[in-house]
Amino acid sequence: MDNRGASMATNRPTLNFTNDADQVEVSMAFGCHKGEPTVAMFHEKLLILIPKDVLQIALEQGWDEEKQND
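-> structure tokens emitted (70 positions)
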């Protein structure tokens, strides 16, 4: 992914990047949904809501098998 254009807004944190697979501009917005910390992913419309705890598990464990194969 091309993160050169990535940015974090100060009033509502967002991360914007280009998906290398299809050159689509994607935005991630950080906030709360139903009182829970959540990231929302957008491309022209809302694509998915990911709760913070799910995102943390994915980041911590998502590449574990890859590490074992190195």
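The chain has one domain: 14-69.
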